[in-house]
Amino acid sequence: MCKPTIKRLILFLILLLPSGQAFNAIAGIPPVPKLPVTNAGISALAKSPRITLNASARIASSTLSPQVSAQITKTLQKRVLTSGAHFEQTRDKYPKMNPKFLAIRWVSGESLSQNLTVSPEVLYPQAPFLQNQEQLGLYFLAQNNRAQSHWYPKLVTWYQEIVRRLDDFKKNQLSITHPIEKDVSWIAQQLPEDISYLLLGECHYLPDIPKNVTELISYIHKVLQPEREIIVLTEFLPEIVTWGYSGPVSTWEIYTNLWKSLEEMGIPIIGMESDFTFNDFNSKIVSSEPEIATESYYAKILENKDTDKILDTSQQAASSLEGIRLRNAHFMQIIQQTRQNHPDALFIIYTGGGHVEYSYPYSLGDALAGPTTRVISLSPAPVMAKGQWQVPGISFDVATNARFAFDRLVQFNDPELTRLSGADIRWRIPITQGVKW
Fold this sequence. Notes:
Layout: H1 3-16, H2 21-27, H3 39-46, H4 66-92, H5 120-123, H6 133-164, H7 166-172, H8 183-189, E1 197-202, H9 208-224, E2 230-238, H10 256-265, E3 269-273, H11 275-281, E4 291-292, H12 294-303, H13 313-318, H14 321-341, E5 346-352, H15 353-356, H16 364-367, E6 373-380, E7 383-385, E8 388-390, H17 396-399, E9 409-410, H18 415-421, E10 425-429, E11 435-436
Parallel strand pairs: 1-5, 1-6, 2-3, 2-5, 6-10
Antiparallel strand pairs: 4-11, 7-8, 9-10
Helix pairs in contact: 1-2, 1-4, 3-14, 4-6, 8-9, 9-10
């Protein structure tokens, strides 16, 4: 096929297919509202090609005239505006949720596109019509807007159901009577002997949380299952960290002791974050202070103020719905590939809570749910600041008005309530150190 024919074909698809379907058709993926959200659906996402450089799948820039490229940009701009307006209309149809219910960046403007410096072929290898950073940012925004329209009604329903069943949660909460120093052993003993997946979802930037994660993994390895193969897969290391890797690696300081402890125990560590996400998104965490006092940080979260000064626009992109979709699909690819070679190992998957808790968009916990899977939420215990208790919890704690936030361990004896709450166990970690990056 000659180059002019390619140009005409692309322009024909762009101009004639309605409501963004042209781009999805070319990319080989359905519009976000039609993305499968069941366990099987998430697994299907993970079977798509890895998010890696694939230049051969792209249309070379030289095959598109400036006029065609300009038309692509113009059409993408229109898609951003129409999809953003549709999200605003969708949100207006439903009761408002507490804005702190989920750690998701709800946006309809262009802030997310500013720092997407990754190449288009890396982020969307199946969208060869994207020719530059501007088009990549616009495509990302349109996908994100459609995802927001799809998920917002579901999340409102989830929020309302938690509120409606508050009395059921109270009646079915299990009593915890042991002292705090036995929390780690108690949690470990709640796990089934044949557990396949233990998903740990944390609240970020708090050194006390990875410290307790270290103790939990150590107890499982040394006491409960000393002969079991255990593999830790984590969001907090880039995917370059895998079997046999011994080179330099970037990581947050608060996790270094955990990595050292795992190495000493002989437990392999697999990084799950794609290299471009780790280096482009996560390296741009900015703050006016190297360390923010715990109380002031909690106060900002509680008041829902100044949080954007802590996270820049690239981090907002990573925690948007489209960012979570791309990243969780990538995580699932690595999990499934590793499982093929280690069918009997215990996988401990350590990420932020928004990646693993049940009912979250594109949840890994939902994708891997089953009788041998457990999800544990790790969040800070309430902190006294300015004469008041500050509860920086999200999702379940917000919907229940912090009814269970002062309980060190929260567990319910009803499987339906457990899934609705988001985790099999909610573990409150006493905070002794300030926030660190």
